[in-house]
Design goal:
The complex is a heterodimer of chains A (441) and B (191).
Chain A (H helix, E strand, L loop, with lengths): L1 H10 L3 H8 L18 E4 L8 H20 L3 E3 L18 H6 L4 E11 L2 E10 L4 E10 L4 H17 L8 E8 L6 E8 L6 E5 L4 E6 L5 E6 L6 E6 L5 E3 L7 E6 L5 E8 L2 E8 L5 E3 L7 E6 L5 E6 L6 E6 L6 E2 L6 E7 L6 E7 L2 E7 L7 E2 L5 E7 L5 E7 L7 E7 L6 E2 L5 E7 L5
Parallel strand pairs in A: 1-2, 1-3
Antiparallel strand pairs in A: 3-4, 4-5, 6-7, 6-29, 7-8, 9-10, 10-11, 11-12, 13-14, 14-15, 15-16, 17-18, 18-19, 19-20, 21-22, 22-23, 23-24, 25-26, 26-27, 27-28
Helix pairs in contact in A: 3-5
Chain B lengths: L1 H21 L7 H5 L9 H5 L5 H4 L12 H7 L5 E3 L9 H16 L4 E6 L7 H21 L7 E5 L12 H7 L1 E7 L5
Parallel strand pairs in B: 2-3
Antiparallel strand pairs in B: 1-4, 2-4
The chains are: A mainly beta (441), B alpha+beta (191).
């Protein structure tokens, strides 16, 4: 595990290069991982073969989603289907590797759709290593035609894993705050969409402010903060049933909620007489215990994936900084020491990094550091970047980016752990406070 | 301004009355301070005085808000019941204290009102930290009003973080306006 982490840290530029190097048959591929900018690996994903018009359409749609997933990752460059020489008619035969080498494809995904009944289809594909001339993986999904998008994302995850050695993150969702209206009159709604921006749905809101939604570990529940009552409080929403529940009835504001990794507890902040402290609520017994007692601001608690540590934000040292403590509130240690103000820490699902927001010289950055505060690295910089959230595999961070000025508005952006591949995430409207789900079951 | 003249005028009238009855050549200023507490224009005592100055009678300004109204509260608080804070600060400036004293006087006079004390932060901070910071601001305002005699049961403090800016500019001037505590009067109405 440790070795894997150090390799991941070392590659810093492209995980793909490492994966290819780890596969002996790719030994001839020489990618210098010390280079700052690695070219994304060219990959060919022809439309999946169909036997009639509906399966052909499905095959074309699925391939398009896979190409888009791989392209957005920044690790792959899907080639233009117009450039393909070979048109495969049966994926059970080896492709003409020479035809794919000519167009410089290093990987080839050839797939087909088979209709078993009007309501059941099989989606099958093979991933070929073009230079080594061999199959890396072959996978079959049995599903319904309506489920084609998720099937495509699952295929992307399988390809990503085969080529990088790491779990993917494409079959996942993002919950966020949909924003409308001018800067001084924003309406905020709770919304959810696929990680690629497809299938947006509005879950709640319009009349009250809703903030900081976060997923439970099984992706079935969302906790958030709402101004539905005079004093804002933390709520729980079941996505499937739509059942919404006020969590406790506290005299002061409760905010900044996040689930524990086992989903049985919620860490949140509570403000009493102006002082914010961190509490843990047992979601089964509904009892709360207080973790911080300092007369300073203590907010934004986030558990380590093993549930044993908590990182949080406090101004007890005179300015907002990051601290860790044990899950019972003991053993507090400051971990941020650089110039500037730190906030909004989130522990990576791999456990090896903490993402945060740092403001310095009028700019806001998304950054990462080790849990002991070492190896701080800033990944972005803008007028206002905030609310980082990790991809399920801990390789990508998405965040809110607010633009400056009277017409300022918020968008969701993504960036790699390496600081590469910064790009806007598709949302139906203006959007903020994203939270990425774990991989869907 | 108008009110000040009125109070001065009233005091003057009372002083003159006192002067007439006791023939004291040097009226002491104490009654001036004690007599009409800083209240909204109340013309009644003026008419009862024996030596009214004509300009005093003319004082009630039709442009002034109706005493005891929410507009009156805002007017007495200096135009708007809002006090401002420094960057990442929640302590009250002298200006803020003076404005809050006026708010407290009014709330003490019109005791049927309740209020939500809102804390606000500017956009230069992350959402959750700003919620905590603005909670401190709301509490600073509430605690000061309570120290001036307003019952804590009449005041609810709510942090809005950076969610409800009043100024859309991303400039020092805009941010300064957005760092505030606002006393939002709730109708308990006048009884």
């Amino acid at each position: 595990m440790k070795a894997l982490y150090s390799i991941i840290t070392a590659m810093a530029a492209s995980m793909l290069s490492w994966a290819f190097m780890a596969v002996p048959s790719f030994a001839q591929l020489e990618i210098d991982i010390t280079k700052g900018n690695i070219d994304p690996t060219p990959i060919a994903v022809p439309d999946f073969i169909g036997t009639d018009s509906s399966t052909r359409q499905l095959g074309s749609d699925i391939a398009a989603v896979i190409r888009a997933d791989l392209e957005r990752s920044g690790l792959f460059r899907p080639l233009d289907p117009q450039s393909f020489i070979e048109r495969q008619t049966n994926i059970d035969y080896e492709p003409s590797f020479a035809d794919w080498r000519v167009i410089k494809a290093e990987g080839l995904v050839s797939g087909r759709i088979v209709a078993d009944s009007p309501t059941r289809v099989r989606v099958e594909f093979r991933l070929w290593d073009v230079f080594a001339g061999r199959q890396l993986s072959g996978i079959r999904f049995a599903t319904t035609p309506e489920n084609w998008r998720r099937t495509a994302h699952k295929a992307s995850d399988a390809i990503y894993k085969a080529l990088t050695g790491e779990e993917g993150y494409f079959d996942s969702r993002i919950v966020f705050i949909d924003e409308k209206g001018s800067k001084i009159n924003r309406q905020k709604r709770l919304a959810i969409m696929d990680q690629d921006g497809a299938n947006p749905q509005y879950l709640l809101g319009g009349s009250d402010i809703i903030l900081t939604p976060r997923f439970s570990p099984n992706s079935q529940k969302i906790t958030f903060m709402s101004y539905e009552n005079v004093v804002p409080q933390v709520y729980l929403l079941d996505i499937e049933t739509g059942r919404r529940e006020l969590l406790g009835d506290f005299p002061g504001m409760t905010f900044a909620p996040r689930f524990s990794p086992d989903g049985n507890k919620l860490i949140l902040s509570m403000s009493r007489r102006g002082n914010s402290d961190i509490f843990v609520m047992d979601l089964i017994s509904r009892s709360t215990s207080r973790l911080t007692t300092d007369p300073s601001i203590d907010v934004s608690g986030s558990f380590s994936p093993d549930g044993r540590k908590i990182v949080f934000n406090s101004d007890r040292g005179g300015s907002p900084q990051l601290y860790t403590m044990n899950a019972d509130g003991t053993g507090t240690k400051r971990i941020s020491f650089g110039k500037g103000r730190y906030s909004a820490p989130v522990w990576s699902p791999r456990g090896d990094k903490i993402a945060f927001v740092k403001s310095q010289s009028g700019k806001f950055s998304i950054g990462v550091m080790d849990p002991d505060g070492k190896n701080e690295r800033l990944l972005t910089s803008s007028f206002l970047d905030e609310s980082p959230t990790w991809s399920p595999n801990g390789r990508v961070i998405i965040f809110s980016r607010e633009t400056r000025g009277r017409n300022g508005s918020s968008e969701i952006w993504s960036v790699d752990l390496t600081g590469q591949n910064e790009r806007k995430v598709n949302t139906p409207s203006k959007a903020s406070d994203p939270a990425w789900s774990p991989l869907l079951p | 301004m108008t009110m000040k003249y009125l109070i001065l005028g009233t005091a003057c009238a009372m002083t003159l009355a006192a002067c007439a009855s006791t023939a004291d050549p040097v009226p002491t200023p104490e009654p001036v301070v004690q007599a009409p507490a800083p209240v909204a224009p109340q013309p009644e005592p003026v008419f009862e005085q024996p030596a009214p100055a004509p300009q005093v009678i003319a004082a009630p300004d039709p442009n002034l808000p109706i005493p005891g109204s929410a507009e009156d509260f805002a007017y007495r608080a200096g135009g708007e019941p809002r006090v401002f804070f420094g960057y990442d600060r929640y302590d009250l400036s002298n200006d803020a204290r003076n404005a809050l004293r006026s708010q407290a006087d009014w709330l003490n006079q019109y005791a049927s009102y309740t209020a939500v004390v809102e804390g606000h932060a500017d956009e230069r901070g992350t959402r959750e930290y700003n919620l905590a910071l603005a909670a401190r601001r709301a509490d600073s305002v509430k605690a000061f009003l309570v120290s001036q005699g307003v019952s804590p049961s009449r005041l609810t403090s709510v942090s809005y973080g950076k969610e409800r800016p009043i100024d859309a500019r991303s400039s020092e001037a805009g941010w300064a306006r957005n760092r505030n505590g606002y006393t939002s009067l709730k109708s308990g109405g006048q009884s």
